[in-house]
Amino acid sequence: MKIAPKDRAVNIVIGAILFLFALICIYPLYFVAINSFSSPDEVTKGVYFLPRGITLENFDYVFETPLIFTGVIVSVSRTVIGTLLNVLFCGFLGYMVTVKDLPFRKWIYRMVVATMYFTSGLIPWYMLMVKINFKNSFLLYVLPGAISAFYVVLIKTYVESLPASLEESASLDGAGTLTIFFKIILPVCKPVLACVAVFGAVWQWNSWSDNMFLVTDAKLQTLQYLLYRMMQSASMSDAITGQTSIQPMAIRLTMTFITILPILLVYPFMQRFFVKGIMLGSVKG
Amino acid sequence: MKRTKLLSKTALLMAMILACTSCGNTPNDEDNSGSGSGDGKTVTLKVMSASTNPNGTGPMDNEVAKIIEQDVGIVMDLIPTTEQDCQQQLPALIASNDLPDVFFIPETDTMKYIDMMHQGGQILALDDYLEEYAPNMMSDPLAQASIELKKSTLSPDGKLYAIGMQRGTYDSGLQPVVGQFIRWDLYKELGYPELKDYDTDLLEVLAQMQELENENNEGEKVYAVGGWFGDAQGWGDWHITYNLAYAEGYTCLTPGDRILYSDIATNEVVETNAQTDKDSLFWRAVKWYNKAYQMGILDPDSFTQKQDQYEDKVKTGRYLYINPGWEIQSVHDYFDSTGQTDKGFTCLPPMTDDTDKFTLYRYYIAGQFNYGVSANCKYPEKAVSLLDWFSSYDNARICYDGPEGNHWETVDGVPTPKEEYLDIDRADPEIQKTEGLNIMDKLIGYGYGTIDPKTGTAIDLYSSSTQAIEKKMRTVHKDMLSHYGYDTMPEMYEALSPGGTIDMTVYNLGSLPEELQTLDASLQSYQFKNLFKCIMAKDDAEFEKLQDEYIDGLDAFKIDEIYEYWLGVAKQQQEELKPVISQAAEALGIE
């Protein structure tokens, strides 16, 4: 089919606008990347298009930070384990609150949803965590966040959109709750679970405040908190006495790059599930 | 069958919830008070220190820590924090009665936290331990002055609850923390025009400098003056609060509402309301920025940019006049990296028509960082010994520079840094990790530049010794010295500031009474909202109109009552603290 010149012009304009829009989205990431690989002095002067004075000096500095490798292990572990627990616990609870013969089903669901609107505040949260011995414990990173009301709502809505006959037929064949959940519900919930996994992983990877409040053990420091502190360590007094050799901007951008890289890698793989998962349940016919 | 399934579902759900809440440490893992035997043997103390150095986490095992262990039998298990983080952490720690053995108390609202802990019986009164366990503090007049100040200004019942660390000064005399820094190379190029006052001469010289250099090395626009007015209230107005006060030898006693100032030379309160007096430091600073705006030498971005954007411009040589002294190193680094080694900033001495003094040395008599000891600490005597260990001049030097022999040696009775020491990067994580240099800085009893009375040299040899200052001298410094005819920067500044160079302000005015607190908060936002309008006035007539409107508007916030309250408290403290100031001045050898 031949495209009319007028349509072609419109297409070009639309293409240009979309390209510009894509550029606006991508440029901040590109900016972070080129600055991370540029020499600290050049970063101070401003690097906008191509890396200048290409170097790994900034990464060297960041990776020389004490405990950094322990931090990576802790952060990766909390992300992997925390996300798995997130998916499993939210998935199971989300499914259970759809099971009509569960006693107090509606109340359980309402109590979970209520936590979206009312939070306990810092001090009660802190006291509770100390009380249940989560202080200086890895469990602090993965268990309190294992159930999130938002994910439960997301999963419940998705499970409700599935045909009831799926569960009924399995039940008729003698399958118990766990069998139905693991063998029937989980496989068909892949899109929404992938969506929860991405949300959960990003949240886990970026979290550091629980570390700041409750973890003093050097071996349990998360990468994010170490990097946060490293930025703060370029203090005013150090600058006055000329005792700091780092360029905070270069280090800040390098840290941002290191922080977003894993998430950038995860998104493309999960994207097809992600879009499907977040859209499902939004329209009911 | 159906009932069994139902039960199993409920049981599973319950098990899941239980799993969330039951797994954790065993209670014994988290005993927060000091552990160990304590009978002369080594004990471990948890110390929450105002330091974010990545090496300062967990049990310390570097060279400095080993000396501490050997001297006082303490292994420090460090918990790093900052002023801002601690303001969130401390209420949680207090609420759960979970304070570490030794802990930092934030600088903001210090008394509020001490009150909270005192009411809960969570903070230890240290008076009874000093005689036996704090020989260094008891024998040092500066530490004694600090203790007296803490008892009179940071105590609900006159007892000692906080020990102030980082007493003395950070300043070495090369330059002040805040001042009138100008591009000396351009000033020289202009033929050293006369600079007698801040309000006109300085602006005219800056305008001429901007004409001389209106682009940086990268071809970007250069302005003489800039600011970070786009930042939040309390920080965006930093220049207005501090630049002139420091430069003319005054201290703002109420930086929130900028109503009251004191004189560094006499330590007396300036009895005028700086908000309503058009000749006050506040209004002169506002007027100065307005004039700069009218002359086109104030970067127009100043009204929207934040501090980091301001810093980026400073670091690329886009301003010719800077107030924060801590920015100077970065711009000098930029000049060096671009081969412009002859360029540089120096701080102007006091302007003769305005004043005869300025703040070259800021002395923290009471100590800048407060530490308390938990009432739950099993070994309070060890906790006090630890704070006392840091309060010896010799130990302070060990913390900054390591033990004698490594990086420094005594030459003719004077601690002298080895030449190669001044070339190393003390921020190198590896050096910090193994040697422990400067990683416990906020716990050290004395600031970098404090002079050890025994040897007459600064505590931190790396940053503040004569050799270190000599190494930091640039062409511009040398030219400035030859222009004024002096040999060293401290000597020059002291000679050109006969009125005084040391700020020993110790006022702690606390909070306003409740009925005035809300009004003062509203007053501060009123000031922040309107002072920049005055700076942006197009001409003098508009400025005066806006200034009058501004001053008229202050009545709505009962400004006179607030002023009277502040003045009353300040005058009372002025009298009460006189003996302590004299004691500290005597200890420092200041007349």
Tell the overall outline of chain B: globular
The CATH topology of the largest domain in chain A comes to: MetI-like fold
How far is the first residue's CA from the last residue's CA of chain B?
95 Å
Radius of gyration of chain A over alpha carbons?
A: 24 Å
Largest interface: A-B, 62 and 73 residues
**Most strands sheet of chain B:** 7 strands, mixed
- Give the class-level CATH name of the largest domain in chain B: Alpha Beta
Mean pLDDT of chain B: 90
Rg for CA atoms of chain B: 27 Å
Describe this entry's structure for a reader.
The complex is a heterodimer of chains A (285) and B (591). Chain A is mainly alpha-helical and 285 residues long. Chain A folds into 2 domains: 51 residues, no CATH class; 222 residues, Orthogonal Bundle (MetI-like fold). The longest helix of chain A has 32 residues. Chain B is an alpha+beta fold and 591 residues long. Chain B folds into 2 domains: 211 residues, Periplasmic binding protein-like II (D-Maltodextrin-Binding Protein, domain 2); 301 residues, D-Maltodextrin-Binding Protein, domain 2, CATH 3.40.190.10. Chain B has 23 helices and 20 strands. In chain B, the strands form 6 sheets. In chain B, strands 1, 2, 3, 4, 5, 6 and 15 form a 7-stranded mixed sheet that branches. In chain B, strand 1 and strand 2 form a beta hairpin. In chain B, helix 10 crosses helix 11. The interface between A and B is large, with 62 and 73 residues.
Write a concise synopsis of the structure shown.
Chain A is mainly alpha-helical and 285 residues long.
Q: Key terms for this structure?
A:
heterodimer, A: 285 residues, mainly alpha, MetI-like fold, 2 domains, 72% helix, 0% strand, flat, B: alpha+beta, D-Maltodextrin-Binding Protein, domain 2, 3-stranded mixed beta sheet, Bact_solute-bd_prot1 (chain B)
